[in-house]
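Moderator note: this is an archived Q&A kept for reference. The question asked for a predicted structure of one protein chain; the sequence and the answer are reproduced below.
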Amino acid sequence: MMRIHRIPVRTAAASVLAAALAISAADAQSAAPVMLDGAFDEWSAAPVVVSDPADAPAPYADVREVRVRDDAEGVYLMLVLERPVSLQALDGTLQLVMNTDGEAATGWAEAGMRGVDAVVEFSPRTPNGQLAGVSLRAARRPGEAPQERPATDAGVIMSPTHAAQRFEIRLRRGEPFRFGRRLAARFVARGRGDAVVDRTEVFSAPLPPGEPRP
């Protein structure tokens, strides 16, 4: 004779309630604006756009994971590294090479990508030969040669500013970042002699019209 297992109504209701609360919590985290506070709670629901193995030798930056979010004010990246580093005082240079409008016909070719519109460099080589700070290369107008510009003037902000394994990076919408409907990008890590020591695959992320920040 077949046995029929009955689930108590209270148990079933509790399970449904717990599932609903978990979904609501995840939705709340995904809707929370990026705060650049080093907490990373609002990133849990953001999909990973690229994963990279631990393959760069110490002490260089070794990119492991990247996530992307956006809103009406900016485009944000969460960067996970293999080991703690200070982005503004690296032993080499970490480049974020971007095709900001998703068009291969605009921009220039660099790091195996076509249509590059902007490159953010963490710990670029300064005129006195040191590696420090943050710089930006971007064209002032489509079709022009890229020029180095102050990253802070372009709204490039990162957190934390001390050594860490995870970082939040904000790129302000508007000139010189002419973001379109889709971003294509990759991270490239270079040693002191400019040789490539790590490079992610090119990743892509949709950039729908951003929601206003609350």
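Archived answer notes: The two ends are 60 Å apart (CA to CA).
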